[in-house]
Amino acid sequence: MRREPSRPSVATGASAARADHAVADPSAAFFRIRAATAAYGVSRSFTYRALAEGKVVGVKAGRTLLVDGNSLRAYLASLPRAVFKGR
After folding, report:
1. CA 65 to CA 20: how far, in whole Å?
2. Domains with residue ranges and CATH for the chain
């Protein structure tokens, strides 16, 4: 018996949002690392470094590391403003 070639599955609804890693709501209480990086435009290494240095609060929920949204917002707000020199 001949099998049809498999087609890639297409996610819809809530599973599509997870699959595409849609941008998280910046006002959320806790973020997974990927959602925090997407919501605030920072890198994974920046986020992990801030957690390691104690500048941002992280909690473990089972095997999942969650970033406290309030502490991340406060840390980003405390960073110095970028200064760009005119031409």
Report:
1. 20
2. 26-78 (1.10.10)
